[in-house]
Structure formats: structure tokens, C-alpha cells
């Protein structure tokens, strides 16, 4: 028997969805505006619902960005009703060296993380839920059947997303020369007078401060753009 892999797990997830009556295809070849894409699973009714089963990847922000750029940006063109990310928060604890029957039993006991992402004009929103596979499969079936309703994000989820986004920005800014960063934001005086940071003594804090500053400006722009549509483009039209 072949050694279990992420593909094996994706096939098992397909079986779990099919048991719930979902029309689902594993490893489809999907033509999109950005080229051929191969989601792990593609659920179908009158719309399409790509599902990425990420077992080993840990970076939630990168997972969401990939789904957003590959699928949700073209939701209308591709007739997408929503996208899902199903991943194990601690993949090192998920043992794959088991026969299929035992692996299924272990999977049903394991706790997974489910991300639900819907098109911008959908009353349903982004959600992040932890639970057993059976619990999460049932939740996936709900939006496919148009049952899930709009729900506000929990504060701890918002804080974690913002924290991870800042970390992602900080990692990217480490590749930019410090002189360019300082000049772009007004030089040493900006950090000393506005942010109360002594650049010479706290040089390593600069990229962190800039990351927070960029994030606040992006959030501010996003809010203002909703009310000044005649002058400001929404973010989705920039990319």
C-alpha cells in the first residue's frame, strides 16, 4: 500500500463530503484568468466552491492570500460561491503512517481549522472555526446549500489576523534598505517626533513600527474608499 500523503487525506476528505451528498471532484484542472489552477477539491452545485486541504502549511495569511488571488478575486468570472481552507493547526501531531481505515478513524478524532471565504457581495462573511472533521464537514455543506448567514468576526480572530498581517509586512520590509524606508516616511524626524522612537538606539524597531503604520493606513483607506467611491478605488481593483 502506498504511503499516505496529503493527496491521500484529500481523497478521504472527498469521501466525507460525498457522504453528505456534496458533488465534489478531487484534483480538478481548472482554467482561471490567472492560468491553470488545481485546487485539492472542487465542490459544485449551481456555483463552484474550491477547497484547499492544507496539512503541512502553517502560515494562515499566505493560505488566505493564495485563495484570494487565485479564486476569490475572480469570483464572478468563475461563478464561485465561496472558498474553503481546511488545515491541521499542528501537523506534526497528525501521523500519516497508518493504513487507510485507521487513518480515517484518527482523522475523525483530530481537531482541524476551517477558513470560509465568501465573495464581497455575499451577506455571509469570512469565518475561522476549529473543530472535528465531522463538525467542519457539516459546516462546509451549509454554505454550499446557501444556509450560512452573516456573522461578525470574534475580536480574538480579528486581533490574530491583524497581528499575522503585521508580521507578514515586517518580514517583507526586511528586504528593503533602511535608508529607503526612512526617506519614504519623512526621515529620522518622523520616528522621533511622531512615533517617539530613537532610530539610532532602536534601529531594529523601525520595520515593526513601519509595518503597524502601513497596516493602519491600509485600514483607513479601506474605510474611506467605501464612502468616497467617486474618488477612491476599492483594494480589489488595484491587484
Task: Write up what this structure looks like.
- This protein is of the alpha+beta class and 239 residues long.
- The chain folds into two domains: 6-144, Trna Endonuclease, Chain: A, domain 1, CATH 3.40.1350.10; 155-237, no CATH class.
- Helices cover 44% and strands 16% of the residues.
- It has nine helices and eight strands.
- The chain has helices at residues 6-19, 60-70, 75-78, 100-109, 133-144, 155-173, 178-184, 188-194, 206-227; strands at residues 23-26, 30-32, 35-37, 41-44, 48-54, 83-87, 111-117, 127-132.
- Helix 6 crosses helix 9 (206-227).
- The longest helix is centred in the last third of the chain and has 22 residues, at 206-227.
- The chain is globular.
Output the keywords.
239 residues; Trna Endonuclease, Chain: A, domain 1; two-stranded antiparallel ribbon; 44% helix
Helix and strand topology:
Elements (H helix, E strand, L loop, with lengths): L5 H14 L3 E4 L3 E3 L2 E3 L3 E4 L3 E7 L5 H11 L4 H4 L4 E5 L12 H10 L1 E7 L9 E6 H12 L10 H19 L4 H7 L3 H7 L11 H22 L12
Parallel strand pairs: 5-6
Antiparallel strand pairs: 1-4, 2-3, 4-5, 6-7, 7-8
Helix pairs in contact: 6-9
Amino acid at each position: 500500500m502506498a504511503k499516505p500523503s496529503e493527496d491521500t487525506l484529500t481523497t478521504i476528505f472527498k469521501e466525507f463530503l460525498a457522504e453528505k451528498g456534496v458533488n465534489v471532484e478531487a484534483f480538478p484542472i481548472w482554467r482561471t484568468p490567472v492560468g491553470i489552477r488545481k485546487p485539492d477539491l472542487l465542490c459544485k452545485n449551481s456555483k463552484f466552491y474550491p477547497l484547499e486541504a492544507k496539512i503541512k502549511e502553517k502560515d494562515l495569511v499566505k493560505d488566505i492570500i493564495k485563495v484570494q488571488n487565485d479564486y476569490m478575486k475572480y469570483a464572478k468570472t468563475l461563478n464561485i460561491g465561496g472558498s474553503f481552507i481546511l488545515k491541521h493547526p499542528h501537523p506534526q501531531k497528525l501521523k500519516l503512517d497508518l493504513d487507510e481505515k485507521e487513518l480515517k478513524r484518527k482523522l475523525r478524532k483530530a481537531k482541524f481549522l476551517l477558513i470560509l471565504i465568501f465573495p464581497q457581495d455575499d451577506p455571509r462573511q469570512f469565518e475561522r472555526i476549529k473543530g472535528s472533521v465531522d463538525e467542519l464537514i457539516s459546516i462546509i455543506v451549509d454554505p454550499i446549500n446557501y444556509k450560512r448567514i452573516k456573522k461578525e468576526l470574534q475580536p480574538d480572530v480579528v486581533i490574530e489576523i491583524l497581528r499575522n498581517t503585521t508580521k507578514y509586512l515586517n518580514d517583507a520590509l526586511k528586504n528593503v534598505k533602511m535608508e529607503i524606508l526612512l526617506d519614504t516616511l519623512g526621515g529620522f524626524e518622523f520616528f522621533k517626533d511622531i512615533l517617539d522612537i530613537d532610530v539610532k538606539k532602536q534601529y531594529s524597531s523601525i520595520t515593526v513600527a513601519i509595518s503597524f503604520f502601513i497596516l493602519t493606513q491600509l485600514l483607513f483607506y479601506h474605510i474611506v474608499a467605501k464612502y468616497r467611491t467617486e474618488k477612491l478605488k476599492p483594494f480589489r481593483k488595484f491587484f
